[in-house]
Structures are given as C-alpha cells and as structure tokens.
Amino acid sequence: MTELAWGRRYLMCPPAFFSVLYEINPWMHREVSVDVELAHEQWSQLVACLRSAGAEVELLDPVEALPDLVFTANAGVVSRDLFVPARFLHPQRQGETSHDVEWFAMRGWRVRELPEGLHQEGAGDALPFGELFVAGYRIRSDVRSHAELSSLTGVPVRSVELADPRLYHLDLTFCPLDDRRAITVPAGWDEYGRRLVKELVPEPLPLELDEALSFAANSVVVGRNVVMPDCPPRIGRQLEAWGFDVAVVDVSEFRKAGGGPRCLTLALDVAVGALGNVGP
Amino acid sequence: MPATERVEIEGHIVDSLILAKVLDLIVGAGAEYAIVDMAIGRTQTDRSRAVIDVVAEDEPSLERLLEHLQVHGVNRLTDTDASSVAADADGVLPEGFYSTTNLPTSVRIGGHWEPVANPEMDCALVLGATGPRTVPMHRIRRGDSVVVGPDGVRVEALPRAAAELSFEFMASEVSSEKPKALLVRQVADRVRACRDRGERILVVCGPVLVHTGACPDLARLIREGWVDVLFAGNGFATHDMESNVLGTSLGISVEAGLPIELGHSNHLRVINEIRRRGSIAAAVQDGYVTGGVMYECVTRGVPFVLVGSVRDDGPLPDVFTDVVQGVDAMREHVGDVGAALMFASTLHAIATGNILPARVETFCVDINPAVATKLTDRGSHQAVGIVTDIGLFVRDLTTELCGT
Fold first, then answer.
1. How far apart are CA B339 and CA B401, in angstroms?
2. Is the minimum CB–CB distance between A160 and chain B shorter than 8 Å?
C-alpha cells in the first residue's frame, strides 16, 4: 500500500460571498439562510485541519455574486502543469471560470480548454485513482467530455454514470484513499459504474446510501490523514484499521449548498500517468 | 414500420463499459443493433469508436431510445437537414439530385425525420406540403423542391424480422432444387398473411400462363378474391381471351395441345373483335368474352394495367402504348400492395419490381432462373425466385388457397 501521490497542496477560496442564492442541486433551498460568520469559522477550521495534516493551502480571491466560487473542486481538472477549466452546466456558475483561469494562468499553468458545447465540472467529476481519472457523468458532466479530457491530459479516463441526483458529483460517491483503496458509494452509480469501480479498486470501503448522504465520501485525504465532514463509526474503525487518522470537521453551513470538504478544495499536485513535472 | 438510425459513439467506451451499456440499453428497449464499424484505440488514452445501426420497431420508439442513449455519448451520424434545389425545367432534375432506392426512406426536414410515403427506386425526392415523396424524372415540374446530395436522407435496411418472414430458401435466392409442394404452401401462407394484414395482392402475368393452361386456375384465384390488381402486356390479355373465345393460345389448342388450322391468325381476329367493341370491358359486357382471367377481372372489378411493347400485334384498345404513361398507371395501383406474384413474365416483372417498395414480398415464378436473377440484379433484392413450371405452380397454389 502506497500513500496517495497527490493531495498535499490545495486551492481554496474564502467564503466571503458564500450564500444560497439559487437552487441547482437538491440540497439548495433559497429560504435557508447561511450563517456567514459560522461558514467562515468552519472554513477556517478546515484550512487549519488540512495544514496540520501536512497540506499547503493556496487562496483564490472571493468574488461578489459568485457564492459557489468557494467550491474550488469544480474549478477544473489539474494534471501536472495543465489546468483544464470546467465548463459548468448551470449559467449561475459559468461566471466562475474566468476567475479560475486567471488564477492558474497568472501562476504559469498551461490552460487548455475543453471544446464548447460539452459540460464538465472539474475535479468534482474527475478524481485520480492509480494511473487514471475516474470521471462521473450524466448529472453535471457530459460523457463526451471524458475523451476530450483524456486527450488534453494524456491520462486514461474511466466513465462512471451517476445515478442519484442527490449525489450529483462523483466526489460525493468516490474518495481515493491510496493506490488500492477508496471510499465508494455503489448506490450512487449505475450497474456498469459499480462493475467498473469493482474491477478498478482492489479494496473498496463501500458506504451505505444514508452514510453517503451525510457526505462521508466528500472527504479530503492528505497522506494518512482523512478529513471528513462526518464519520460513521464503522467507517472510522475500518479507516483506522487500515492505518488512517480520521479528523472530522464540521462544514454544515456548506452542506446547505450541497458541498463538503472535498468540494471546498482543489488538489494542485495531481500527477497521474506518464512522468513529468508536477505543477508549473 | 421499423425505423433505423446510424449512430456513433467515441471515447474510452470499451474500458468504461459504455459500449456494453449502450448495447444492453438497445436490446433492453426491444430494439436491435448492428455494429457497422469498430475501431479500438491502441493505447489507454486512445479513443475507440463504434458506428452502430440501431433498429427500433417504429420512429417514436427510435427517437425515445436515441434520446436515452445520447446521455452516454451516442450521436446520430448525420444530423443535418436535407438540402433541396428547385427544378428549373419540367422533366429535368437539378444536378446532384438524390437518386432513390426502394428501401424505406426518411428525409430530415426542420430537424425531424419524415418518412417517404411511396418508396420507389431510381426516382428523385421532392419535398411537398404533404411531406417528401418519390417522383420519377419525367414527372418533375419546374419549381419542384428536389433533394440534392446524401445529407439528411436516411435509408433503412429491411429489418431482420421482415426477412425471417420469408422462408429458408431466402438464403439461396433462386433454386430449382427445392421441394415444390413446400414452396407452394409457403407462398400460399404469405399470400394469406398479406390479405390478413389488409394489404393487396398483385399478380404480374406473362403469356406463358395461357400457353401452359394455367388461366382457368388463375381465373379461379381472381373469382375467389385472391387477386387485387393485375399487370400484364398485350400478349397475355390477348391469348387469355383467344383461349376463351376460340380455344387456342397463339393458334395452339389449349385442350389438345395441337396446332389448329389457320390458328396462327386467331389472336389477330380476337384483337380485332375487341377493338371493334372498344374495350375488354365492353367485350365482356356484350358477351363476346365469357370466361378467363380478363373476364374475371372485369366482372369482379379487379383493376388491370396492360402496357404494350414494340412487337405487339393490334394492340388491344386497353393497352398503354406509351410506356411512360403505362408505368405511371401501374404506379397508381402499387400503394397498398403487400405481396407480388410474378408469373412467367420477364419484362413486366422487372418493370413492376422497379416501382415496388422493397417491403413488398415478391415471388418470381419462372422456368427460367435468369428471370429471378435479373429481377434481383435490378435492385428488387426482396424477390424470391422459384424455378418451376408455371402451369403446375399456379394449379397447386390455387388448390392451396381455394381448396380442391
């Protein structure tokens, strides 16, 4: 068992303008108000927790009227020194892309865009596992974006169909733990997706649907540390038996928008497939 | 009517089980598929591509299925409307006109596939207020909106289900070495099925029917309602009435099989008498013709189209001497035809094959295997050839359908 080769450097965005202004997933309800102060506190705790686990955190400036910019996981797909910006399905989030692209371009990343007309919501729907990307489709991303992503990054992509609208991004159903293990949510995939992940992941840690709906799979892994929004006892026991340290961080304010710790972070040190530099 | 669409799917479709899923979804929806082309990527990042023909039971089911498959990256191969050009002269097609087949055809207009009502080979497609239709070259009028180029035109291969309706010997198109009793029974089954579907039965007749003594049997088939429309030439109609009036066929006694003295002019005398009366129907009405195939057609109101040729005697007053008008008259009658029986006719069988849609079950019975071969070589691939004596075949078919 080898630790994840990535996940020690993240992009995050302070929740200065975070709120629920629109409803684009089943978790969002405009009548629910966000406690901005509490959100900021929870976000700061997450940053502190990641840093204490050994991760670096870099910051993206928040932008007014872009409340979901905090969910940096959806900014795009990072692969070595390449940034492939997302193509958001909902117009409400499309305004984020220029800010994401600017951040990466300013820091020397190569920015390569997916063809127009396709949707792909960044690392939220494409997570590295082993030598490839596992990518989700149907709810937010088009399956046709996967071949394009593979062409741009040179990394093989495996497509998994997401089957439950409440688990609308892959990162609510899949969390790579190391090179053999991952937290999985079979209930969130169609039959073929389940078969595919079964072949791909030698030691899965499957969540029940109710556990998945507490966003337990939307966790951030930093080496042997797993930062979770919620940890069902049996999951915690298994993770500890495998030698992981579990830290639970309350991000309940972000849950109101359908996001967890993973959604709030974008790994910048992803390097799968052929050898090359990591980052610019 | 079954509907087909050619689609493509590209990406990591093998490793991601997408292809397996798509094929399972097609079958699960009760549709069928054929993989037309498949290219597998060499490396893990190479894309694979499959081109698939999807066949669903009808157009709405196909649309639903394709919409469902789109989510998995399945796209129609042609997704553009048909382009059309106005004809600039009567009887002349614009350059690059789309030349039709006899297969079920649809034209994409305003994003929707519209079926062609009257598939016919070697015609043009004209877009009209009532939808696309086939129009033969000579009937094109200046200003007709004629489809040009292959875009936005879709031809559907006849689905396997339809082919299975035909018998085993569909595999060996033309054969003389088959048990005839079985073939006759199977043709009778297809004719019955056609009538049960409410479709019409067309018979195309050559003069050999009369020479071999098959006319009384064919007349019985008509009398008992097994023929809805008849195509023939001047010769067949003439000899049929000659045998009724004078007992000969081209001067040979139908009863005795021997030449009758001065019989060589019998058919001319009969033609002359029919011409005197103005039409076959008039000759039946005044009692000159009292039996036979043409008589049964007239008395039972079965429409017939007689189209002449360059070597005709007379001809009979009912015969079209302008072949272009003749074929147009035949076209008027092929609309609801579900089965076509070509009996010992070469020219009229091929002419009829040319205007029939491929969905029409066609049986070509002739002692000469070349006839069935000619028919299929000219595009009537649905035709089943039965090589046998026409007199015996029609007798057995009549017994099958009408009893002994």
1. 15
2. yes
List all residues 6 or more positions away from A159 whose beta carbon is below 8 Å from its beta carbon.
A135, A136, A137, A143, A146, B11, B12, B16, B18
Half-sphere exposure at residue B55, Cβ-oriented, CA atoms within 13 angstroms: 16
What pTM did the predictor assign?
0.60
**Best CA proximity match to A166, nearest among A132, A203, A217:** A217
- Listed residue (A140, A88, A138) closest to A113, CA to CA: A88
DSSP for B27-54 reads HHTT-EEEEEEEE--SSTTS-EEEEEEE
**Per the structure block, which two tokens stand in for B80?**
């553009």
Inter-chain CB proximity B12 and A160 less than 8 Å: no
CATH of the domain at B18: 3.30.70.2690
Would you call A166 an interface residue with chain B, using a CB distance cutoff of 8 Å? no
The pLDDT score that the predictor gives to residue B112 is 81
Is the CB of residue A7 less than 8 Å from the CB of residue A220? Answer: yes
Q: DSSP string covering B299-358, please? A: HHT--EEEB--TT-SS--TTSBSSHHHHHHHHHTT-TTEEEEEEES-SHHHHHHHHHS-T
Low-confidence ranges of chain B (pLDDT < 50): 159-173
Domain end point (choices B76, B92, B115)? B76
**Inter-axis angle of helices B293-300 and B234-245, to 10 degrees?**
100
Determine contact, residues B349/B340, Cβ cutoff 8 Å. Answer: no
Q: What pLDDT does residue B169 have?
A: 42
From B10, B17, B71, residue closest to A195, measured CB to CB: B17
Please say if A99 is a catalytic residue.
Answer: no
Q: Which ipTM was obtained for this model?
A: 0.82
Asked if residue B206 and residue B64 are part of one domain, the reply reads: no
User: Cis bond leading into B104, ω under 30°?
Assistant: no
* Average confidence (pLDDT) per 10 residues, chain A, 280 residues: 90 96 89 92 97 97 96 97 96 96 96 93 96 94 92 93 95 96 97 95 96 96 96 95 96 96 97 66
> To the nearest whole angstrom, how far is the Cα of A222 from the nearest Cα of chain B?
28
A23 touches chain B (CB under 8 A): no
- Of the residues B60, B76, B92, which one is the last residue of a structural domain? B76
In a domain, A280, yes or no: no
DSSP summary character for residue B394: H
Q: Which chain B residue has the Cα nearest residue A135?
A: B16
B266, B314 Cβ separation under 8 angstroms: no
Q: Find the catalytic residue in A146, A169, A175, A231.
A: A169
Record the tokens describing residue A177, joined without a space. Answer: 């733990």
